[in-house]
Design goal:
- By secondary structure, the chain is an alpha+beta fold.
- It is built from four helices and three strands, in the order H-E-H-H-E-E-H.
- The chain has a three-stranded antiparallel sheet with strand order 2-1-3.
- The radius of gyration is 12 Å and the shape is globular.
Length: about 90
Amino acid sequence: MEAALRANVRGIDAKCRGNCACVTCHVYIDPDWQTVVGPPAALEESMLDFAEDVDNRSRLSCQVLVDRFCHGLIVHVPAEQRVLGL
């Protein structure tokens, strides 16, 4: 989330600033990377209930821990966020 904010990625607003209290940083993790970043925790899963178009790739980018193993990580911003500017 922080990298997306610094890069002005359209569709990542992160209104709660990484506190897992909103869904304005909803992203899709590329399937090849899901095992690297791991599954969402219980709190994140419950917050994803408030996002649109959630599927098995969905994560809140504020909860994805990026480390040296994530070099080349592929993340997609859902279309509804790009269109609505959430």
